[in-house]
Structures are given as C-alpha cells and as structure tokens.
Amino acid sequence: MFSSLFCCLPSMRIFKMKYVLMLIVLCVSIWGCNSSKSSIEVAHSLKETLWTYMDSEWSYQVRFKEGGVLETTHPNDNSKDNDTWEQIGDEVILEFNDGFSKYLGKMISPNVIEGTAKSKYASWKWRMERIQ
Fold first, then answer.
1. pLDDT mean over 74-93
2. What letter does residue 14 receive in the DSSP assignment?
3. Which terminus of the chain is more solvent-facing, meaning fewer CB atoms within 10 Å of its CB: N or C?
4. In b/e form, how buried is each residue of 46-79, taking b as 16+ CB within 10 angstroms?
5. 124 CB burial (10 A radius; 0-12, 13-18, 19+)
6. Could you give the CA distance from residue 105 to residue 129 in angstroms, rounded to a whole number?
C-alpha cells in the first residue's frame, strides 16, 4: 500500500520542480530584468547640456552642470551658486535661489522639456529646447 505511494513521489517532485521553474521563467519574461532607470534617463542625460528656457516673460540659456549645478544667463539671477537640478528618469526638477522657485518638468523628447514652476508669489508654464 505504501510502496505505491512512494513510487509516485519522485515524479511528483519532478512535476513540482517543472511547475516552479515554469513559473519563474514566466515571471522573468513578463517583468524582465528592469532597471529602475528609464530609457530617457539612460539615453538622454541632461548632464553637461545647454538649453534655451522659455516662458511667457523670459527666454535665456540654461546649462546642466556636473553634480546638479545649474548655470543660467537669466538677467535677474544674482545668486548663481544656489541653483540646482535633478533628473529622475524623464522627470526634471530645477530649483532657483535656494528653492525659492521650483520647476517640475518632463522630457517629452530628447530635445524638449516642458513643465510648470511655482514660487511664493506665482505659478507658470515653461519649456526648454536643447541647443547642444
């Protein structure tokens, strides 16, 4: 009686192992080995690039420097050493004057970023186009 039960155990183990292996293969094929970085971030880093910034009132150049440093030609920027940038995938965050104004944008193509900005006094839409 027990001998017939034990004779089936190896085939049950093989069946379970095949089932688990198929499940693992299925999961890997569905989710893959995704990196947390988006394809825009990998292929189109903003580091050391030059852009033209535009909104309803201003147009000037912006350079994304190493280490999150932002350089601009904005005529009213008297404290250039406290402007920063960060890129997370296709999302871009800019802060001017120690965070007085914050810009949230999205790369809609390798050469265009669009977004909104907000300060204590106002909010507005903006756009950047890559120069180099």
1. 91
2. H
3. N
4. beebebebeeeeeeeebbbeeeeebbbebeeeee
5. middle
6. 12
The one-letter amino acid at 105: G
The answer to which of 25-29, 74-78, 91-95 has the lowest mean pLDDT is 25-29
How high is the pLDDT of residue 62? 97
Mean pLDDT, rounded, for 83-106: 95
Share of the chain above pLDDT 70, in %: 67
- Sign of the alpha-carbon dihedral angle for 68, 76, 56, 101: positive
Summarize pLDDT for 14-62 with one digit per residue, the tens.
656 666 666 665 555 555 555 444 444 445 899 999 999 999 999 999 9
Read off the tokens for 16: 């379970």
Q: C-alpha 81: how far from its chain's center? A: 24
Whether 114 contacts 104, CB under 8 Å: no
Residues present in the chain in total:
132
30 HSE (CA, 13 A, CB side) = 6
Residue type, 101: S
